[in-house]
Each structure stands twice: as C-alpha cells, then as structure tokens.
Amino acid sequence: MDFRTEFKPLTIQPEQIEGRSFEMITEEIGEHPFTAEQYPIVQRIIHASADFELGKSVLFHPDAIQAGIRSIRSGKKVVADVQMIQSGANKARIEKYGGEIKVYISDPDVVQEAKRLNTTRAIISMRKAVKEAEGGIYAIGNAPTALLELIRLIKEGEAKPDLVIGLPVGFVSAAESKEELAKLDIPFITNIGRKGGSTVTVAALNAISILADRV
Amino acid sequence: MDFRTEFKPLTIQPEQIEGRSFEMITEEIGEHPFTAEQYPIVQRIIHASADFELGKSVLFHPDAIQAGIRSIRSGKKVVADVQMIQSGANKARIEKYGGEIKVYISDPDVVQEAKRLNTTRAIISMRKAVKEAEGGIYAIGNAPTALLELIRLIKEGEAKPDLVIGLPVGFVSAAESKEELAKLDIPFITNIGRKGGSTVTVAALNAISILADRV
Prior knowledge:
The structure is a homodimer.
Chain A: H1 14-28, H2 39-49, H3 52-56, E1 58-60, H4 64-73, E2 78-80, H5 83-88, H6 91-95, E3 101-103, H7 108-117, H8 121-132, E4 137-140, H9 144-155, E5 163-166, H10 174-183, E6 188-191, H11 198-213
C-alpha cells in the first residue's frame, strides 16, 4: 500500500493524547466521592464518555477492584453481553494471563432457545454463560435483561461471578437492573441511572485489566 | 446445550422493549429543532446513550439523510474508524445491497506506517480508506484524529464521501474536529461538544440503513 499523502505533524503526539485527556478530567472533575483505588476506573469511564455526570454516578462494591484484579490474574473467562465489548476491550492483557472474552448472544443454540421461550437472547446467553464460564468477570453494557437474569442466577446460587461490571444503558429496566445489582453483597461496579453502554463498560474492564497487569 | 433453568416470563416482551423506549424518548424530549426526517436518527442516538443533551446536540447537513440512504442502496462501502462500530452495526441491512463495513485501523501496513511517521493509526487508516473505499459512508465514533484527517483529505480533493457520520468522543480535539466537519458543505451528521462515541455512531448508521431498507 502506497501512502503518498504528505505527512502533516500533529500538534500533540499520539502517546500524549490519552495523558492530556486524563489531566483535563482531573482538572475539571471537582469534588467526587471516589477513593484513590476507584478514581482511575472512573477517570477511564469519563474519558470514554466525556460525561462527568455519568462518571460521578458510578458505584463500587468495596471488594470490586481487588476481586477483578485477582480474576484477571488467575486467567478466568470474561463474559460480555454483546460483541461490541469483546471488540473494544484490550484482549492482549486478558489473554496474557490465560483468560479470554466470551460472548454467547449470537450462538445458534441461544438464538433458538430465546425464540422458543419468546424471551431475549441476552437472557438465554447469561444462562449459557453461567454454565460455561465458572466465576470470572461479567461485563454487561447493553442489555438490562442480561443483568436482571444474571442477578436472578446469583440469588438462586447458580452463578458466582468474581466481579459484575453492570453498566447497561437504556429506558426500559436499565436503571432498575443496576439498582438491583447494587443491593447485592458481591463485587460489582455499576452506576445510578439510565446512562451506561458498551464503551463505558469497556473502559471499566480495561481499567481493571491495566491494574491487574501492573506489577 | 441444556437450559434447565426455569423460564420466568418478562413483564415486557422483547419486541416491545425498543418500541416502549422510543415512546419514552418522544414523551420526554420536549422542544427540539429536528425535522420529521431527522428525528428518527436523533431518537436512536438518545436510545443508545440515554442522553437527551447529546441527542439535542446533533447537527445535520441538509443532504445528509438522503445521501446516506442512496449510498447504502447503491452498495457502497461503509468505513468505520474502529472495530466496535463494525461489531455493533447491523451488517445484514448493508450487505443486502452489496455493501460491507470496513475498518483499516488494525491492518499491518497501517500499524507500520503510523509507527514510521510517529502518528496515529487512525490517521493512516483514513489515508488507506480513501484509496480503497470510493465514496461511501464514513462512520467515525472514536478518533478525532481520524475525523481531522478525513476533513483534510476532503478539502484537498482526495476524498469524496457520500456521507460523513462524525461523532468522536473525547477531551483532546473531539469537539474541534466536529466543528471543522460542520463547516464543510458536504453531507454530514455530527454534534456539538465532547460527547459522542462508537455506540451513538452505530445508532446513527443503523438509523440510516433502516431508512434505506424501507420501501
């Protein structure tokens, strides 16, 4: 491939863009309730959304970060509700420890079973996930029904995730599903309200894997 | 695979979730500047972000929607800056007309050239895209440097996209890149400010392909 277009220097170098963004977030965030351990995760969520309101709405179970770090270091699977999270997340850092990111929502058996039961593929994908991925991190950024089903499976003792990153977005059941998650005494990262989504879920997951990969 | 978990009916059926969300958006949006043609795109952007402020910040070039519809119907390529957009977008509707979604950012020649020039892979991916994908829709949701480079290539006559969906998110250059796009007299969909991202870019692209697929 021939890139004949003239090179025009950037005013800021590529490796500086992220650092400068993080500085701007710290300059602008003002008062916040987060610990020094939690702040880097919130910072990445704000970086991915440019939304301080969303960042400040994040809630952490006290064991969340350490549990997430241990899970990645022990090479457990990460389960995501949608492909976008698998695409966006840094896979190299997870695979380095023997883990991988799994998404079950498009599996033919999941699609078929969801049709048969007239329910969402997201729900059935969680039922499959808890059978195939023991423990591990669950990263849910899109489907409130996936998070509600995972909560049910946890309550019934069928699922025991190391960490639930539950940040689905939306108008129907998203806020409610996150309220339910925040009531559980298990490691979780979630937020208050309708906002969320795949990009901020990726940001939280990447933040955890960066911490896990730091000596 | 055996799904032995008992089926628990949803209070709302899967096919109703999206419809109910759209109703809630219309109930809550209040006054807005969008035409009847533009509103469905904004509605999908709000659906994907749960953010009315972001939705109301969207700007349309007057030819944007019709140009996007024509592009998809004529089977032109869609170029995205990042994999997450390729993962999240409805590919079936684009492929039905002969098109496909291309992402060049991880191509080995792009990675190598970016290193050599000490610039971003996003920039080099746009240079490759304009050589490989004639016309078509450019959907940029992550990298302001990709959008700035595409604008430069348009100004220099090296790129002539059918439609630019430019919704990158971030603190460094994102708002500025979108301001530059909005000055061009070419079909664009963009927004004012730092907010944006892959999920809302997917929402806008899906909204256009839905319109294209409607008889």
